[in-house]
Design goal:
With 290 residues, this protein is α+β, with helices and mostly antiparallel strands. The protein is 41% helix and 21% strand. It is built from ten helices and nine strands. It is globular.
């Protein structure tokens, strides 16, 4: 993603991720951004690195992949509709083009774990081995409130996230709001099948109420609701494997269904800002019972 944040495009991205099943026409999104439709297409691609239609399709497919693996009660058609696809045939076509297999094959778990995209970075491979040996923490069920935040978006799960946090920290120090602000990371992508460099992340600082419009950062409300919380501690390289293990091992047996809003990481200690790269994180999965 372009390092230069565009507040208008951030408003569009927030709208897309708030409800990926809703009609997301370029005309509607251009209106949100207050651009002409032609100019909107150009600015979106410059800011995000891909066209708006491709971005929406990829976002919907990533969520559909999650639902097919973890929601076995609903039909493939129902999953497709819940993710914004209006035709089963078109869903089958774009899904196979993205993941190399049909939705049915994916649902039957014909996915080889050893080929998981996140198992490429040496420290994450090492982290995965450590996570395998550890016991999964006992989760708790909580109802989170909506949370005002200022934020910087980032593409990629890896050390490059440090840049987003460093920029946000510098801005917050300048504003005098850094010291007591809750640090929150939003994980939009499942690294089990999305390449790390394409995973979408948002670095956020909690604020009590909206602030005057800023040029360096944007603002949004992280939606609350029912979440399952895990307290995780470790070092750089272990959080991505923990996230994948929870999604692949715990979630299918839990009786819960993952919702479309992002997974929330509340940092007690942020490994992207700590010299020793240790983390202490409360990880919140948005879930429902239906």
């Amino acid at each position: 993603m372009n390092s230069k944040q565009n507040p208008r495009i951030n408003d569009v991205l927030y709208h897309i991720h708030r409800d990926i099943a809703s009609p997301l026409t370029a005309k509607k999104l251009a209106h949100i951004a207050a651009y002409s439709e032609q100019h909107f297409h150009r600015v979106f691609k410059q800011s995000v690195g891909e066209s708006v239609n491709r971005y929406i399709r990829r976002t919907r497919l990533e969520h559909a992949a999650n639902q097919l693996m973890f929601d076995t009660e609903n039909s493939i058609l129902t999953v497709a509709e819940k993710c914004g696809f209006v035709s089963l045939s078109s869903f089958n076509h774009v899904f196979k083009a993205q993941f190399g297999m049909t939705p049915g094959q994916w649902r039957r778990k014909e996915v080889q774990p050893e080929h998981s995209p996140y198992l490429t970075e040496p420290e994450i491979i090492w982290g995965a081995e450590q996570v395998k040996k550890a016991s999964l923490p006992t989760p708790t069920v909580v109802e989170l409130p909506n949370q005002y935040t200022v934020y910087i978006r980032h593409q990629g799960y890896g050390r490059s996230i440090t840049k987003a946090w460093s920029l946000l920290k510098a801005w917050a120090i300048q504003q005098g709001i850094y010291d007591n602000a809750l640090q929150i990371g939003l994980h939009h992508s499942n690294p089990a099948w999305v390449n790390l460099e394409q995973c979408r992340y948002v670095a956020c600082l909690a604020i009590d109420k909206p602030m005057p419009k800023q040029s360096k950062v944007d603002q949004m409300i992280i939606p609350g609701g029912l979440h399952v919380a895990f307290r995780l501690q470790g070092q750089y390289g272990e959080l991505v494997p923990w996230l994948t293990r929870i999604l692949e091992d715990w979630l299918p047996k839990s009786g819960y269904k993952l919702q479309t809003t992002p997974i929330i990481a509340q940092y007690v200690k942020n490994h992207f800002l700590s010299e020793d790269e240790q983390f202490d994180v409360k990880l919140y999965l948005p879930v429902s019972l239906a």
